[in-house]
Every structure is written in C-alpha cells, then in structure tokens.
Design a protein that fits this description.
Elements: E1 9-13, H1 21-30, E2 34-38, H2 43-48, H3 52-61, E3 65-70, H4 76-85, H5 91-104, E4 111-115, E5 122-127, E6 130-135, E7 147-151, H6 158-172, E8 174-175
Amino acid sequence: MKSGPDREVVQVYPYRSAAPASLWRSLINNARTELTFAGYTNYFLWLEHANFGKLLQRKATAGCRIRFLIGDPEHQVTRDREDEESVPLTLSARIAVTVGELARIRGADNLEARYETGHVSISVFRFDNDMLVTPILARRVGHDSPMMHLRREQPDGMFDRFSEHVEELWSRGCDIWEG
C-alpha cells in the first residue's frame, strides 16, 4: 500500500496509446454516477471503442451523468494548436467527428456537451473515482503524450485538484448546441 502524496497514482504510461483498451472499457463500464470526457477533441474514443454511442446511451439511461468538454473548433486557440501539431487530421476535423457522434445521442438523458478552450494542453477523463490524465506535450498529439491513471484516495489530492480544474473549465464553457 502506498502512503504519501503519490498514493492516488495507480499507473503511469509513457504514451496514452500504451494504455490497454481494456482499461478504458473497464473504467467506462464500471462508472455508475459520472463519466467526464474533457479531452480537446475526444476523437479517439469513437474510433477505439466499438458502439461507444450506444454504451453512453445505456449509461445515461441508467442515471450516469455524462459530460463532454471539447475545444471550440472556431477559436484561435484551436487554430494555434493545429499549427503547432502540424498533422493532416486537424483538431477541427477531430472535433467535428465528436460533435457528429454526440448529435446521434443528443436527446439522451444525463448527457451534456460544452465547448471550452482552456484545456488544449491537458485531457482529463473521469470515471467516478478513477481518472485518466494526459498532459499534452508540445508538438505532440494526445496519443503520443504520457498518461496517468489516478484513483481518489484523499481529499485535496491530485484527483480532486484535476477535478476542480475540469469544473472550472466546465463553468466557463458554452453548450455546443446553442446558436
């Protein structure tokens, strides 16, 4: 058993893509009250998890709160990050895929989605008391950046600090379906 400030660190991966798909699926399936996907595009979720939209609908119907916080494809922050990444599949295109997939399940209870531009350099994914955090490195895309698996073990630990960060960004966001 770990003690001290690092006891919330379950596992560290040198790349997000190094984490097994089974970890993501397990965390998503086992979440009962909250799923928060605060990645700038969340694009990879739709590609790497078969029937992801149907799974989210089932979770929402069962009472799980599901939130997506994604980048605003029209914002200068997005364009600047696209220039830095310099990859053919732009952030705007990846965001469009997520928005399109969310549109298919838009009417689901307990599903919310917002645009916000303050998290272009970090992705935070919450599954009840588990969390995956990816600090996005300069000139790297998300799958090529490190990832930490955290589990809430104490008040005001790393888990709570990242949760507060997401809540702050969420409070500043705007509903993607407005306008």
